[in-house]
Recover the amino acids of this structure.
């Protein structure tokens, strides 16, 4: 099934520069593999599926990527960078309370995944089918989320009183990842934002057990 939003680049004379054409082709391939993998699964997705969805030639595909895995890993990394940038921006000014900043960050993360069901399924579930290279990169991305969350929570003195604040941050991020992956596996993308409230309640219980 062709994506209705994809239109082939104009043939013959046009006003696009070579750089614009190349950038458009690359973006379409990255979006194409994200969508097709979400629909068919990584193992059942072929290069032919991707170029059909992106509406480019096989030659064009191999001008950009060595193989299907290289295309997937690029899409994964660029998608993760966009999500990280979005949640970092959502945190707001450093002078705001740590828990307020965390709540904004968490809301942006959950809403970002809810708004992109194909990306969520591809990068949270199908990434495991790609192999060790993808698993390693997913772990690296998760460590960056740990650093982000730990940096936010360390602004609250109560978090620093925990036996091991960084380990606690890893537990929080790991728990969020498990909850989110479960929702995506069930196809309940719309239910992702609702996870924010119980997650925040748990974090508050860690820093203020009597609260």
């Amino acid at each position: 099934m062709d994506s209705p939003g994809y239109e082939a680049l104009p043939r013959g004379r046009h006003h696009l520069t070579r750089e614009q054409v190349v950038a458009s082709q690359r973006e379409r391939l990255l979006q194409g593999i994200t969508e097709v993998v979400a629909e068919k699964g990584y193992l059942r997705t072929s290069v032919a599926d991707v170029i059909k969805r992106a509406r480019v030639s096989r030659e064009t595909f191999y001008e950009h990527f060595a193989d299907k895995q290289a295309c997937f890993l690029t899409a994964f990394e660029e998608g993760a960078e966009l999500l990280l940038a979005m949640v970092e921006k959502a945190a707001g000014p450093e002078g705001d309370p740590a828990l307020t900043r965390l709540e904004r960050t968490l809301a942006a993360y959950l809403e970002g995944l809810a708004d992109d069901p194909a990306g969520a399924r591809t990068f949270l579930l199908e990434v495991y089918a790609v192999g060790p290279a993808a698993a390693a990169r997913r772990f690296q991305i998760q460590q960056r989320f740990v650093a982000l969350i730990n940096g936010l929570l360390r602004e609250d003195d109560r978090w620093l009183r925990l036996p091991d604040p960084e380990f606690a941050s890893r537990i929080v991020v790991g728990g969020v990842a498990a909850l989110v992956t479960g929702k995506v596996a069930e196809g309940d993308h719309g239910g992702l934002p609702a996870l924010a409230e119980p997650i925040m309640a748990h974090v508050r219980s860690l820093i203020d057990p009597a609260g």
Observations:
- The mean pLDDT is 92.
- The CA atoms of residues 7 and 29 lie 13 Å apart.
